[in-house]
Design brief:
Blueprint (H helix, E strand, L loop, with lengths): L7 H19 L6 H15 L1 H4 L1
């Protein structure tokens, strides 16, 4: 039987990779007040799982 569970190190690496990708997404919105607000929220919510893990 194959073990499909992820190791803690693999999960940590995936969360860090996700945070980096979120940083790239947060750079995409236009430099408007609304774009910056959305980018800030994306950064806060997308980068919090890694340190909270």
């Amino acid at each position: 039987m194959k073990n499909d569970q992820m190791t803690p190190k693999e999960l940590e690496d995936r969360l860090i990779d996700f945070a980096v990708r979120i940083g790239n997404v947060a750079d995409a919105p236009p430099e408007t007040p609304l774009g910056q607000h959305i980018a800030d929220q994306i950064l806060r919510s997308g980068t919090s799982p890694a340190p909270n893990y």
